């Protein structure tokens, strides 16, 4: 079979250029989406009288027979060296299966709308997988937070010890990030869930197609509103990769903290051996390969988003061949996050904290200084003066190598008459935690309530996103 576009040409393509410009070596993976979209288009043109009922059945059966080859992976490319892209490949295979009837399938459509549809279907599936993976990771973090109970650790600002917090509070910070990431992906899915089929090459189909047929068959909320936008739109791909880039940043921050906390200098946790490797030179080493790889792979996610934005920013309407270069960054981003989320939940569940080391670190370094200043404000001291008085007490502690609660009452009263015997109970570890008694604070009962809320949200979000969306259609 000649090229899908060969009628107007008389000279053969340069052989090197022909191979260089093919997209089939990477867009073969869109075979399931291409078959689904082609089947939906077949139903549309049948409704328009282009196919008879029997021809439609033959067409759909022929398309279904092509799909098992999706499991063959890149071997498909070698099996069809003449295929220019996934669309051409399906036409070739369908022609082998049902003969010249296959040539009717392209009636009323363009490859421009096909690839726009295929990529939307691919991204939609990738979003569903990612959200499910994030739900599993959220569950792992909540399990870890529950097991931590009232265990305490230092929090940090400027990488310096700041105030004590519950370990559960720290873990729930990442749950909050993940929930925002999931909502971004869900928003992206909702915005992109419109069907380009029927948009033609640029101006709309030349047949009176009922576009709602294809949209409904593919689980879209409806047809796209503008044919020029539909065939050239890659906002959904940019938004998808940008959401993954933000997610990658959050995952990388988690990985960085674990990498730091597992060092001998911190000693807050033991890395699970099942997710670590050793050194080929130094027998004592246990290296944090998983967390380091995650930090590195977050860069790939950022790169995919940057590539797409750079690719599309200067393109005039509508379709341009440049958009072919937008497929691989999307594939790579989807593969990268799939890989990360295939190991991250199990790794998280395998973490074991050294709560004793965390506790010691939480009780040294004047982490109760804020609570001490708060104590003075309850005595009527303006906060700026309270800050100064406690700062003077900290200076004495530094000079004499004692914590605030180790200073004598007489020494403290030298900085202010407001200090009294109840100061020592006000700056105990428990009181220091519980003085943060606001929504979102690390007070013990607040964290307990937040943990229960997180468990409820995870339970209510256990239904796959695709099923939720189907109920809205």
Write the layout of secondary structure elements.
Layout lengths: L14 H6 L3 H4 L3 H17 L5 H14 L8 H5 L6 H13 L12 H38 L3 E6 L2 E7 H26 L18 H7 L9 H6 L2 H27 L7 E2 L18 H24 L14 H23 L2 E2 L1 H8 L6 H10 L4 H18 L8 H5 L9 H4 L2 H6 L9 H17 L4 H8 L1
Antiparallel strand pairs: 1-2, 3-4
Number of domains: 3
CATH homologous group name of the largest domain = Fumarase/aspartase (Central domain)
* Number of DSSP helical runs: 21
Order of helices and strands: HHHHHHHEEHHHHEHHEHHHHHHHH
Write down the Rg: 30 Å
Description of the structure:
With 473 residues, this protein is mainly alpha-helical. The protein folds into three domains: 9-107, Fumarase/aspartase (N-terminal domain) (Fumarase C, Chain B, domain 1, Orthogonal Bundle), CATH 1.10.275.10; 112-200 and 221-360 and 453-461, Fumarase C, Chain A, domain 2, CATH 1.20.200; 369-427, Ribonucleotide Reductase Protein R1, domain 1 (Orthogonal Bundle). 60% of the residues lie in helices and 4% in strands. The strands form two sheets. It has a two-stranded antiparallel sheet. It starts with 14 loop residues before the first helix and ends with a helix.
């Amino acid at each position: 079979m000649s090229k899908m576009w060969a009628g107007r040409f008389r000279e053969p393509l340069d052989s090197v250029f022909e191979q260089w410009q093919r997209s089939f070596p990477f867009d073969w993976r869109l075979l399931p989406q291409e078959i689904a979209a082609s089947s939906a288009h077949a139903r549309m043109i049948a409704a328009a009288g282009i196919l008879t009922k029997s021809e439609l059945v033959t067409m759909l059966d022929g398309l279904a027979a092509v799909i098992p080859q999706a499991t063959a992976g890149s071997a498909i490319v070698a099996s069809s060296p003449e295929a220019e892209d996934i669309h051409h490949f399906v036409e070739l295979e369908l022609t082998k299966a049902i003969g010249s009837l296959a040539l009717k399938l392209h009636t009323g459509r363009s490859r421009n709308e096909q690839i726009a549809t295929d990529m939307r279907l691919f991204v939609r599936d990738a979003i569903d997988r990612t959200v499910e993976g994030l739900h599993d990771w959220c569950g792992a973090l909540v399990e870890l937070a529950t097991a931590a109970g009232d265990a305490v650790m230092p929090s940090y600002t400027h990488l310096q010890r700041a105030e004590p917090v519950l370990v559960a509070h720290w873990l729930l910070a990442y749950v909050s990030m993940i929930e925002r990431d999931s909502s971004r992906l869900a928003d992206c899915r909702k915005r992109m869930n419109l069907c380009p089929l029927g948009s033609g090459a640029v101006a709309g189909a030349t047949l009176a197609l009922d576009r709602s047929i294809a949209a409904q068959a593919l689980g879209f909320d409806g047809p796209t509103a503008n044919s020029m936008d539909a065939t050239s739109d890659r906002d959904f791909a940019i938004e998808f990769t940008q959401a993954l880039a933000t997610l990658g940043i959050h995952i990388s921050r988690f990985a960085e903290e674990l990498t730091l906390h597992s060092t001998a200098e911190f000693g807050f946790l033991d890395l699970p051996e099942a997710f670590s490797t050793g050194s080929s030179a130094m027998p004592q080493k246990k290296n944090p390969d998983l967390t380091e790889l995650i930090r590195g792979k977050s860069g790939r996610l950022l790169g995919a988003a940057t590539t797409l934005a750079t690719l599309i920013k200067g393109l005039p309407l509508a379709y341009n061949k440049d958009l072919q270069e937008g497929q691989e960054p999307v594939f790579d981003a989807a593969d990268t996050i799939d890989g990360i989320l295939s190991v991250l939940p199990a790794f998280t569940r395998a973490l074991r904290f050294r709560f004793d080391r965390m506790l010691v670190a939480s009780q040294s370094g004047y982490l109760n200084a804020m609570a001490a200043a708060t104590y003075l404000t309850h005595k009527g001291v303006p906060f700026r003066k309270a800050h100064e008085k406690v700062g003077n007490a900290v200076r004495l502690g530094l000079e004499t190598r004692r914590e605030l609660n180790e200073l004598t009452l007489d020494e403290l009263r030298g900085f202010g008459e407001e200090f009294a015997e109840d100061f020592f109970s006000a700056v105990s570890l428990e009181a220091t935690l519980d003085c943060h008694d606001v929504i979102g604070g690390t007070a013990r009962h607040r964290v307990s309530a937040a943990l229960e809320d997180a468990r409820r949200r995870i339970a209510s979000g256990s239904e796959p996103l695709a099923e939720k969306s189907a109920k809205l259609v």
